[in-house]
Amino acid sequence: MSVRRETLDLRKTDSDFVKRVAESGGEKILLCVQCGTCSGGCPAGRRTAYRTRQVIRRALTGLKDEVLSSQDIWLCSTCYTCLERCPRGINVTDVILILRNLAVQAGFMLKPHKDVSAYLLRTGHAVPIIDKYKALRKELKLPELPPTTHSYPEALDEVRRIANKTGFDKLIGFEG
Amino acid sequence: MAGLRFGFFLGCIMPNRYPGIEVATRKIAPMLGIELIDLPRASCCPAPGVFRSFDQPTWLALAARNLSISEGLGVDILTICNGCYGSLREANETFKEEPEKLAKVNETLKDVGRTYRGSIQVRHIAEVLYKDVGIEKIGSIIKKPLGLKVAVHYGCHILKPTKHRGIDSAERPRFVDEMVEALGCESVQYKDRMLCCGAGGGLRTGALDVSLDMTLEKLRNIHESGTDLLVDICPFCHLQFDYGQIQIRDSLKEYYAIPVLHYVQLLGLAAGLDPTEIGIYANFVPTDQVMKKIGA
What we know:
The complex is a heterodimer of chains A (176) and B (296). Chain A is mainly alpha-helical. Chain A has helices at 17-26, 37-41, 52-61, 64-69, 81-85, 92-105, 111-123, 131-139, 153-165, 168-171. The N and C termini of chain A lie far apart (56 Å). Chain B has two domains: 5-125, Glutathione S-transferase Yfyf (Class Pi), Chain A, domain 2 (Up-down Bundle), CATH 1.20.1050; 138-293, Rossmann fold (3-Layer(aba) Sandwich). In chain B, the strands form two sheets. In chain B, strands 2-1-3-4 form a four-stranded parallel sheet, with helices on both faces. In chain B, strands 6-5-7-8 form a four-stranded parallel sheet, with helices on both faces. Chain B is an alpha/beta fold.
């Protein structure tokens, strides 16, 4: 049986990366002892090759591109089991969310995630109303449209102006 | 018990996919002395799994906008959804712990003529029913003990992160079980009860196969319990289990027919509401057998 060796090329690591994660609220990952409790309780890790412990280790090592470009960080369902069970009290789920934010900034965003963001900017809802459910609402004696952005075009305009101010529209490549 | 007044935050999935849950909430609230006030112009919470993952400043700003609507009406905000609860509650906790983030958000909100002072609480219907209304009062409106076997699905964000919740244990909670028992039902145990439904974290949107695989594991375990139905307290879990069973049948060729109700619907039935008026017929998985069993 052969053992695959992996050599870490330090030229490919970014020593500032962990600093950025720490500054964004993930400073506790510096306490990680790689015990693997996070992976052990992870429902996504049960059925895929996603290993929370490995993502944290890669982030600590400064393997920025590997962490941010990998689909792994998008397999977390944010169930918070890892965060609750971490014996070092690391806010693991928050760290995954921070890594996702950094991934999106670096241009790594899944197409369906861009689409759901566009729904938000077009309607104010991630899951907007459709005709079938307008009819059902009416059947149930509710107004066809809920009293949300769906009923108030000026409220949708507020949502869009906020997204414009934070740069979210550009971030997701929103074209209207 | 006087003064249970809340801004009723609708979110997306309840009003736009399962309006029966909305009707049930609006009908049971006055029976229990809860006054619901509409929150005109609210948007998506915005969904924590997706928008918080993409850009936290945008997530915080849009959450603060929703919170400011309820604050403007002078009431705490109430949600029936674990996702909205997670989003609004975590944003609210962030504003308490990091006032500089609230200041920054208010800079953004200024442009649309709003501010959020951080003066209100975020509540979930399940914890309001348990803590503020109480089991005894719930029992007092029951016209018909239902006698059903119920598999309770808590979902994740109602209980976690526990640092910001303090409702019940995240590993072995009991409070929804108690509320189910108050309706004359038996809460059945099943394997891996606290497992996530698979919908959250942008997983349903971004990796449907993994998402449904998680749901399937839950469905298998719930099926083995011999339950009559599954009861949730979150429209997103609800959609994942109800519509998810159809998707699992089509894509994974595994067939389950476990009826799915939100707790407010189960409560409504026990309080004598007609299943039709609370939209139970609109579920994807047929509910006829359960309705027959309770004589509705």
